[in-house]
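Quiz preparation item.
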């Protein structure tokens, strides 16, 4: 295993992070107005960016995992934990006007309110860490199904799932463009 704190690794991480932030800015998702309008169903930029990232990232992982170039680690399925986490994340995103990644990219553009919100993310992370033993005992046990994936439980291969997701994304992109052009 390579040393993640080696100078080359740190420089590579900074370059990738800067490129990611620049792409978020170019995609206009560093603007809280774009994110707010996503929740108002007036601007679908955020959803289009996220679907594109999911498809590209998923296909990339699939192609790297199949020839065993990377180790694919499946996380435990905890339905209640995911549902509660998604709800808290969504409410936080509405109040903050950013998701964590776009918030950090907005800080790089000079947004002071994004910086204040990032401090809130840090406080939330600390509170979660302090309460994790309770969360693990009382929440993560409800709807816990272990390490499962859709291809495993449906018998449908990963490439077919990604092709289906890509088709859904394309249909959504066409629909969203028509909605925004009205």
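Solution:
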């Amino acid at each position: 295993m390579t040393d993640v704190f080696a100078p080359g690794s740190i420089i590579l991480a900074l370059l990738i992070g800067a490129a990611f932030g620049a792409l978020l800015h170019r995609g206009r998702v560093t603007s809280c107005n774009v994110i707010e309008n996503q929740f108002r169903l007036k601007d679908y930029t955020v959803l289009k960016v996220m679907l594109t990232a999911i498809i590209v990232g998923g296909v990339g992982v699939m192609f790297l995992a199949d020839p065993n170039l990377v180790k694919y680690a499946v996380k435990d399925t905890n339905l209640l934990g995911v549902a509660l986490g998604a709800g808290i994340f969504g409410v936080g995103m509405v109040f903050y006007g950013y998701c964590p990644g776009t918030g950090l990219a907005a800080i790089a553009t000079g947004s002071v309110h994004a910086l204040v919100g990032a401090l809130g993310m840090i406080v939330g992370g600390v509170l979660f860490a302090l309460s994790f033993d309770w969360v693990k005992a009382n929440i993560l046990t409800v709807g816990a199904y272990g390490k499962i994936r859709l291809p495993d439980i449906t018998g449908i291969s990963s490439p077919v799932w990604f092709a289906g997701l890509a088709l859904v994304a394309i249909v959504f992109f066409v629909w969203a463009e028509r909605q925004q052009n009205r």
